[in-house]
Every structure is written in structure tokens, then in C-alpha cells.
Amino acid sequence: MVTLNDGMELLGAFSDANNVEEEVKTFRPDLILMDIEMLGRTGIEATALVKKTSPEANILILTVFDDSENVLNAIKAGASGYLLKKYIANRLFSAVEEILEGGAPMSPAVAKLVIQSMQKPLQSVNYGLTEREKDVLVSLSKGNSFKLIAADCKISIDTVRTHIKHIYEKLQVHCQTEAVSKAINEGLV
Fold first, then answer.
1. Residue in 172, 158, 157, 159 with CA at minimum distance from that of residue 132
2. Can you give the pTM of this predicted structure?
């Protein structure tokens, strides 16, 4: 049973995520509460699909799974937060408010897993980036505009956009900030 706080409205409840793309387009939610284990598509797969079609959507994973593989894959797929179900009674509404204010709520054990994964020694991985994509990524990490990158690399702005799209796909990120952060953290630039 859920009692909604002021200003919150439940738009729908679904037992699976098989039609998640259509449902997100229809309801246009500010926030999606997503489990990981569902019939058909997993919550991680559904999160990636939602972020691909509606990058602005916020997704809070609510699950019993606290293993590093599920946690990290959900975050990589685009989850805005990750809360274990045993904390729902105490944290659900504060987690929802935190996400809507731009935060990333996590259960304590989940936050510890994320920190531990970030503290592992960095291994420089190429991600299959071409030399030109690396040049564009380096220039992007310096804060250069698309126009300046195009001039420096002697390519068109459209070609810069294409390279950046490929960089996002290869790094499995959704925006410039994520790409630059990942490039710096993983020693790509």
C-alpha cells in the first residue's frame, strides 16, 4: 500500500517491463520505481531502454539484490538511485524527493559497494576508440566547444557530433559530463 505525499501522483503500476518504452512515452513520468527481477525484461535492461528513449527520466531501483554486479550494472544503465527493499518503509519518500532534487539515493550497503568499486586500481581500457575519437575526447575534456574541436581536428561540426555519439556508445554513457568523467577516471585522457 502506498500513500502519496503532496504533489505526487501515481501514474501507473506494472508487473513487468515488456512495454516500458511505450508506457514511458504515454505517461511521461518524472520518476520510475523499478525492480530488477521481473518477468521478461530485467529492470536493468528496462532502465537502459528508458534512458535511451527518455534520457531525462529518473529511475530509482527498488530491489532485494545488493550484489556488486546488479548494483553497478543498474547504475551504468542509467539508474538515478538504488534502494534495497528492506529500507523502503524508512527511506522511500525521502529517496524520491532526493532524486527529484538531483540527488542519487542509495542504501548504505549499496553506497559502500559503489565506493569500493571506484577505489579499485584503474586499468586503462581503450573501449575500441579510434585515434580520432580519442582526439575529440581529449579536446572535449578540455572544455572545448564543438566548433573549436572541429577547427582543431580539421573536421566539420557534424563529424564532431558523429564522433561524440560513437564515444558515448563505446563508453556506455549518456552525456558529455559522464564521458569526460569516465575518460578522466579511467585514464583515457
1. 159
2. 0.61
